[in-house]
Amino acid sequence: MTVTDRESRRPTDRGAAELFQLVVASVKDYAIFMLDRSGRVVTWNEGAALIKGYSADEVLGREISIFYTPEDVAQGRPQALLAAAISEGRVEDEGWRVRKDGSRFWADVVITPIFDGNGQPQGFVKVTRDLTARQQAAEKLRQSEENLQATLYSIGDGVLAVDANARVTRINPVAEQLTGWTEKDAIGRALDEVFNIINEDTGAKAQNPIGRVLAGGVVVGLANHTALIARDGTVRPIADSGAPIRDAQGVTRGAVLVFRDVTKERHAEQQLIAAREETLRSEASLRATLYSIGDGVLAADENARVTRVNPVAERLTGWREAEAAGHPITEVFNIVNEETRATAVNPVARVLAEGVVVGLANHTALISRDGTERPIADSGAPILSGDGRPAVAVLVFRDITEDRRAEEALRHSEEKLRLMIASVRDYALYMLDPTGHVVSWNPGAEQIKGYRAEEILGEHFSRFFTADDVQQGKPARELEIAVTQGRFEDEAWRVRKDGSPFWANVVVTPVRDTSNALVGFVKITRDLTEQRKLAEERLRLVQAREAIRLRDEFMSIASHELKTPLTALQLQLSNVRGQASEAGGDLARKVDRAMRVGDRLVQLVEALLDVSRIASGKLKLNVESFDLVEAVREIVERLRDSAANAGCNLSLQTDGAIEGRWDRLRVEQVVTNLISNATKYAAGQPVDVSVTRKGDAAVLEVRDRGAGIQEAELSRIFERFERATSTRNYGGLGLGLYVARQIAEAHGGTIAARNIPDGGAAFTVNLPIQSRPS
Question: In sequence order, what are the residues at sequence separation of 6 or more whose Cβ sits closer than 8 angstroms to the Cβ of residue 748?
């Protein structure tokens, strides 16, 4: 596309304004308004006022329950629909609603929540359409079809219907009786053969009115003194007329002829005409009609002089009827052009000259007798005399000041709507022309898709699709579905300006003008990439938790299954050791090594069982009172030989006895684990153990002078199966410190590790003196 082509597709400021008007006009049949989070009305449009009967002043701030039937309110339906809209992202409903005057109408309702940047609901957009007329029209059409036949055959006049070729298509029983033709015999015959008419006075064949009806598409009355000759020769005077039958496009497809025998009416014809003329001339009837009209009415004679002024016209012109009678219409009805201030052309002159209905020009103002100026609208029409000439002109007009205010309010409402769309940044809201080219762009679209307005206006919206989607014709298919089904919605990958993909929710809605012609599409796009990532992450987390659960379950089963044979093995080794000790030699040493391996296996199994208990919440403490210092001293003495074998000098520093309540076996397990780790990872270096009291807590610390722990490992060495060194150099499952932390925390205490500046590592355990197992 060339730059010139692109520019040609960009709407000018005026074009954009006109397009915006079309958008607004396209939703005039809908009540579109916003609710706050509690369901109270905060905006109101013209469609809402027309459908529901409330003005904005009457409805703003009120709850939506006023639009629902008492039955729905009692069942809590209004709030239930709002809750469903939030949970489902949108809710649509059809049912009875209530207008201001209490009348009910059948409505289609769509409620969409509005979320802020944090995903919190801030209110709702509610769109309501009155479908009552559609249902009533459908019912009326059905009844019309059912009643047509009955009506035709029950009507008291003769009825003949013909096609465009003036051949009979239908004849009712009265027409059968008057013409002497049965419907079966008459259908398909030329009308002149069935409907044989003559002039009563001359006996000459009369002109059939259907010819003029079909040729001109107008209603034609039969000439006076017309008689019908029946098939058996009977002659009857008849009256009435023929009218065209038109299709939906206004094309004449046939005609209907309605006639009756006026033999009995002839004698009363003059009296009936006189009665009709008297009715038309009835002063009382005319005055009652004139004075009940809500608009201003002025009547002028053929000389354009005032003859009638109704009360509304008196108020608007400032002239009383008695004063205005006989004055020129231009004196009483003083109108000017609002913009140029020039005297406006009075429509009465043209009404009297041409005998046609004439509307007032736009921007016409009426200046009353006291100088008050009011904008007015409406038209003038003729009253024809018996010879068809205009005898009287009637001018009907009204004050449109309130209409102007309503239009201004609508303009402000439209401006608010435009600003609202421009302020939305979480959604791309833009319009396409009927061929799919971008004609409007909001900040949300720029934020999501990366294009500035000047870069994208006039471009085809297919550039937002992936190459595969474009190749498969998906853009065109979206618009086709939107046109045929009234809406299109999809979730799929879309492409930003920089080529990066994002997961989008897309809604496309066609926009039509007042004649239902397609003028474009409104497209709403939301970036759901993060939500999609979160959903995938949640799935991976669930899968990971399930894997951990299965692993813990396996460890529990495996630990219990291993403990029984290991216990039996230890007993057997103990018996063999006794026998080997008597024999001496290599056998005794081998048995000792086997027993140490067995002890190590038992420790590993116990560690696995502890992990299983912790994971299942079954780690329980048996709290008792004892001296912590004495318990630690016993452990140090018990491990002194193994420490010496590792080249470690094991020392203990205390401040005296520290009595408290703890689970002795579990505390000894922690101390043993920390000292064993120190002699293993700091072999050949001193290991210092200290037990002190600080306030209401006992502090146990094990320090070594080994290589220390990498800073990155300090935060995770207390997790399951985590180690600060490779298993190639040191054995173990990485469970000891994890179990130690769980035991410390179960006592309500803590355990921590740190590196010593001079080299080595220190593990510190804080235990409350009076432990309260968690």
Answer: 767, 768, 771, 772, 773, 774
Return all residues near 769 (Cβ < 8 A) that are at least 6 apart: 658, 659, 660, 661, 693, 696, 697, 698
pLDDT digits (tens, 9 = 90+) for 330-362: 999 999 998 888 988 888 888 888 888 887 667
Quote the CA–CA distance of 75 and 79 in Å, as a whole number: 10
- The H or E element containing residue 200 is none
Whole-angstrom distance, CA of residue 365 vs CA of residue 343: 10
pLDDT band of 563, cuts 50, 70, 90: very low
Q: Is 380 within 8 Å of 348 (Cβ atoms)?
A: yes
What do you get for the CA distance between the two ends of the chain, in Å?
73
| The dihedral formed by the CA atoms of 666, 672, 673 and 679, expressed in degrees to the nearest 10 | 170
Q: 13-25 and 401-423 helices cross at what angle (nearest 10)?
A: 110
- What are the tens digits of pLDDT across the range 502-525? 999 999 999 998 889 999 999 989
Checking phi first, is residue 295 left (phi over 0); if not, alpha (psi -120 to 50) or beta?
beta
Q: Residue 495 is encoded by which pair of tokens?
A: 């492409």
Determine the Cα–Cα distance for residues 359 and 346; give it in Å rounded to an integer.
10
Q: Cα–Cα distance between 309 and 369 in angstroms, integer? A: 14
φ/ψ (deg, to 5) at 155: -65, 145
Backbone angles phi, psi at 160, to 5 degrees: -125, 130
Neighbouring CB atoms inside 10 A of 165's CB total: 9
3-state secondary structure labels for all residues of 42-71: CCCCHHHHHHHCCCHHHHCCCEHHHHECHH
Buried b (16+ CB within 10 A) or exposed e, 103-130: eebbbbbbbbbbeeeeeeeebbbbbbbb
Q: What token pair was written down for 757?
A: 């500046």
Within 620-663, where are the H helices? 628-645
Residue pair 366/316 in contact by the 8 Å Cβ criterion: yes
pTM, entire model: 0.32
Spell out the alpha helix ranges (H) of 187-268: 191-194, 210-216, 263-266
